[in-house]
Please model this.
Amino acid sequence: MSRFSSSFSFFCLLAIGSVDVGIARTPRIAVVDFDAHQYAGELPGAQLADYVVDELVNQNLFEVIEREKLNSIMQEQQLGASGYADAGTAARIGKMLGASHLMTGRVISVEREQHTMQGNSYAAAMRNTIWSISISVRIFETESGRIVYSDRTRARWVARETTITQSTTTTPYDRIAEEAAVAVVAGVQRAPFATRGLEQSDSGVVRVPISSDPPGADVEVDGVFVGNTDGEFELRSGIRLIRISRVGAPAWEKKVSVRSNLHIKAVLK
Model:
């Protein structure tokens, strides 16, 4: 090989390397079934992990690996189905799935507190049942096996009933699981590793597609009505409270990080 050819090849490699360093890669994360401990009968760990996956996808911070693929790998390798993985397990899963991160979680406690306000001849008695859940979450960096995020998250849901009407269509465990998933992902969003190497949050206005099943639902952003689904809405970037509601169905309400490539879909049943 001539001196010119060698020099040319060397500079090509430098150019390729310099371009590669500047490319921002979206982290790939896998979510293991949470360990629900003694609450597994009412609150399956797989259900809680599914809710967390939904939130991660909606926030568009990670490329989330399909849980069916993760479960298949864990069964084949005879790895623990739930609970806290160790560094070795995280590294093995990451290598097989191409995941940069692995999330595990454990339900620490589920508590219930009731408050009853007596009624009179003009008003029915009111009873508020406050359900709260505490969850411990860890995220491993699979390449190194080190823990890059560890936190304990609390969430709660209040069931309001009267002596005349009582809600029996939705179990409290479903609702607190949904609230817990929102709280878990909100905590992850604030972690330094979640945004390291990614583009910074967009400034100004972002066009966000918002849809619902069924369509035609009201959309409120930070308490202000902005239109009906399905359609695209111009929203200011940052954390926004999105509420999607329709008569005859429970409202969909979440705090969302508004950024490019976000797509919100609410199921109202």
